[in-house]
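Work Package 4 report. The design task specified in the project plan requires that, given a folded chain encoded as structure tokens, an amino acid be chosen for each position. We show below one input record used in the internal validation round.
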């Protein structure tokens, strides 16, 4: 029997399942037979040395790549081939290793751009900011302002993001992803390039998003302190294969994980 299109999942139910996924680029195998799941309302980390296949995995989950083998099931439904914007409409939003914002646009406009995925009125009405579009825009703007308050970025709401320091750009990018009200939020190295204070702020926001809104989060992160503090469960990849999966303390004491990280400068 086919699952309903929008099943109501409770905390701890499997939200996304990755089953035997492999991904190849010509002769290079980025992922080999990887399986794991992400449960509703958890913070799930994906870790591993450089080139382990972490970003490739996120790209499969949000539709940038389609697995060569295996399948991905989201909310109980085997995912058809889908593009990133379709995944976003389905409830999967992400941020990128290198910030991907509209640099000449303000913080507010970048976050509004993320919100546009939720807007229903057609282009004709939006063009004239009239009728249904007007009312809709007011509501969406209110939601975006809430995100701006939540992320404590009121002071930069009108600033073009290209002029902001990197740590703040990362925060705006998080805001844009939150504007999509995702069920699953994918964060690719959310702390990369940040100083200690910025990392603490970002950790706090990630925890608050998870706890206040119940948003399920999967993140790639190299800072092991952050990973161990934030995540409920950790999956470890090495050379495209899964080598461990468990709670932070289980993973930390796993000999294969210790070996994989020996000599790696993270
Ligand atoms: N578009 C692509 N074309 C060819 N090879 C690719 C492509 N994307 C990734 N790869 C290869 O797949 C492997 C996994 O790369 P991936 O970026 O997923 O690793 P990663 O764990 O995210 O690494 P890092 O921590 O350095 O970001 C690497 O060998 C990489 O060179």
């Amino acid at each position: 029997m086919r699952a309903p299109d929008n099943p109501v999942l409770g905390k701890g139910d499997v939200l996304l399942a990755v089953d035997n996924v492999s991904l190849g680029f010509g002769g290079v195998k980025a992922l080999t037979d990887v399986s794991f799941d992400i449960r509703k309302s958890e913070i799930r980390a994906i870790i591993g040395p450089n080139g382990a296949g972490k970003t490739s995995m996120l790209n499969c989950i949000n539709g940038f790549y389609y697995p060569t083998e295996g399948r991905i099931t989201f909310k109980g439904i085997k995912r058809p081939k889908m593009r990133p914007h379709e995944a976003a409409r389905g409830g999967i939003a992400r941020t990128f290793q290198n910030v991907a914002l509209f640099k000449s646009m303000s913080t507010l406009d970048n976050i509004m751009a993320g919100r546009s995925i939720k807007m229903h009125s057609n282009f004709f009405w939006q063009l004239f900011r009239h009728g249904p579009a007007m009312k809709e825009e007011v509501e969406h703007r209110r939601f975006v302002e809430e995100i701006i308050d939540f992320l404590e970025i009121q002071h930069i709401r009108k600033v073009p993001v290209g002029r902001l320091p990197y740590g703040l750009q990362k925060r705006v990018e998080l805001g844009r992803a939150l504007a999509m009200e995702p069920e699953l939020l994918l964060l690719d190295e959310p702390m990369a390039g940040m100083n200690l204070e910025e990392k603490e702020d970002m950790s706090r926001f990630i925890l608050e998003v998870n706890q206040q809104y119940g948003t399920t989060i999967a993140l790639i992160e190299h800072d092991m302190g952050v990973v161990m503090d934030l995540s409920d469960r950790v999956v470890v990849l090495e050379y495209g294969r899964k080598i461990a999966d468990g709670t932070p303390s289980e993973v930390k004491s796993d000999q294969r994980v210790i070996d994989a990280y020996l000599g790696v400068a993270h």
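Confidence is low (pLDDT under 50) at residues 1-5. Validation will be extended to a larger panel in the next phase.
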